[in-house]
Design brief:
Length: about 240
């Protein structure tokens, strides 16, 4: 007696088809309304090629307290883990990007896969991170900017502003034709646990950083003693 074929593949296919239809409808409806330059600017604002150099630059040339350096290390580690998680998931799923976006591959020739959205996961992680550490970020950086103080409305509503940017940027991925709706939803959900893990392991990162400083200090001290000994012997 032959077993009936599983209904799960057909359900999955219907869900994928519905996702593609809704995404195309949204793209077609908003494409003539929203300026491409606005959507493109949102895309660039959430690009990893922007955040990695900025984070590294601030970290390398940082003159703020040690706690600020640890905060930047948390952010950098989270961005790297997000990149690895999204890249691995894309490679495993290999869902093609929407075909109706004509200029997609001029910008992202190396990334042909759609699920999940790397932009939505990245901006969601950054928003979660900034929301959790909003007071520290304000104390370390925002209040030191010109015309900013602790009572500035941008400082007061910093976390809300970042979340608003993250939400608009995530939605723009569908309106720009880069992703389907489920790609964006999956990107946001996947990064939720990652954000919790990075924040929960803040103490471990802090301990590792201080261990590195101690090792560096001992190595420098040992090198100084060795040089002095050689100098004394030579003289």
């Amino acid at each position: 007696m032959e077993s009936k074929p599983s209904a799960h593949p057909s359900l999955l296919r219907r869900l994928i088809n519905l996702d593609a239809a809704v995404s195309l409808h949204l793209y077609t409806f908003f494409h003539p309304i929203l300026p491409f330059s606005l959507l493109k600017s949102l895309e660039l604002s959430g690009d990893g090629r922007l955040f990695f150099p900025i984070t590294l630059s601030i970290l390398l040339f940082n003159t703020t307290p040690t706690s600020a350096t640890i905060l930047l290390l948390n952010l950098l580690i989270g961005l790297i883990l997000d990149l690895l998680l999204i890249g691995l998931t894309k490679h495993l799923i290999q869902r093609p990007r929407p075909v109706y976006n004509k200029n997609m591959f001029l910008s992202f020739a190396v990334d042909h896969w759609s699920f999940p959205s790397g932009h939505s996961s990245r901006v969601s992680f950054i928003a979660t991170f900034c929301s959790f550490y909003s007071r520290q970020i304000a104390d370390f950086w925002l209040v030191k900017l010109p015309n900013f103080d602790a009572h500035s409305w941008i400082v007061e509503y910093f976390a809300l502003i970042v979340w608003l940017w993250a939400g608009i940027t995530s939605v723009s991925r569908v309106l720009l034709g880069r992703h389907f709706v489920l790609d964006v939803v999956a990107g946001v959900l996947l990064v939720k646990n990652l954000s919790v893990e990075v924040i929960d392991h803040d103490v471990m990162i802090e301990d590792a950083y201080f261990w590195f400083l101690r090792e560096k200090s001992e190595l420098s001290l040992g090198s100084t003693v060795t040089v002095c000994t050689i100098y004394d012997v030579a003289n």
